[in-house]
Amino acid sequence: DAGVIQSPRHEVTEMGQEVTLRCKPISGHDYLFWYRQTMMRGLELLIYFNNNVPIDDSGMPEDRFSAKMPNASFSTLKIQPSEPRDSAVYFCASSSPGTDYGYTFGSGTRLTVV
Amino acid sequence: DQQVKQNSPSLSVQEGRISILNCDYTNSMFDYFLWYKKYPAEGPTFLISISSIKDKNEDGRFTVFLNKSAKHLSLHIVPSQPGDSAVYFCAASALNNDMRFGAGTRLTVKP
Question: What is the 8-class DSSP label of residue A80?
């Protein structure tokens, strides 16, 4: 398995533009998580899905953020409109219950909003 | 609401010495704790974990200690090596599989 795959690796966009981040979880994992890493707060949980259903989105900062998981092999995190304070590294992770190692993370998408 | 806290943003140790990274948590429902290691431009990778029924777990040079009464855990690396230089995240989860992370500690091991 290629692991959790995120795209793009880097995204630079102008304030006000829509940004879409993509994630392909590990096949067979039924949990998918979106995290945001910032210097001040470390890894913040934004939202997570179980069997494609959003379970907890209380970490989503505001209505400008939305996430979908249309099927077991794909998820998106969308920011519309983007703002400079959204600049961060966004990680996707997937897991399966009962594993000792917790989550498997993707390599992240570094978002810069100018 | 930071349920998992790593109060030391950075730590520097000499090669061969012990590195001790600390983590505190507030949620008494957490029953599983993990440490992740993160290199630049990569996602965090699993390092070691401990269940709340234990107070110590060892894997080679890495040992995690859990003090439930103090809601505190620590990661010991002995001996520290330059390749251990990375950001270390403490994480905790409860039965619902929702994992919370600390802000991370950047460890630098000097040759």
Answer: S
CB of A26 closer than 8 Å to CB of A94: yes
Name the token pair of A61: 């900062």
| Residue keyed to tokens 């251990």 | B84
pLDDT per residue of chain A (114 residues) written in tens, 0 to 9: 679 999 999 999 999 999 999 999 999 999 999 999 987 778 899 999 999 999 999 999 889 999 999 999 999 999 999 999 999 999 999 998 776 677 899 999 999 999
Nearest Cα residue to A91 out of A28, A27, A48: A48
Name the residue among A89, A75, A78, A81 with its Cα closest to residue A36.
Answer: A89
What is the Cα–Cα distance from B109 to B111, expressed in whole angstroms? 7
Q: Which of A35, A43, A58 to mutate to test the interface with B (most CBs of B within 10 A)?
A: A43
CB A112 within 8 A of CB A15: no
Query: What tokens appear for A44 in the block?
Result: 């913040």
Residues of B in contact with A95 (CB under 8 A): 97
Separation of alpha carbons B4 and B35, rounded Å: 12
Nearest to A102 by CA among B23, B87, B47: B47
Distance CA A89, CA A30 (A): 23
Interface test with B, best of A37, A46, A51, A57 (most B CBs within 10 A): A37
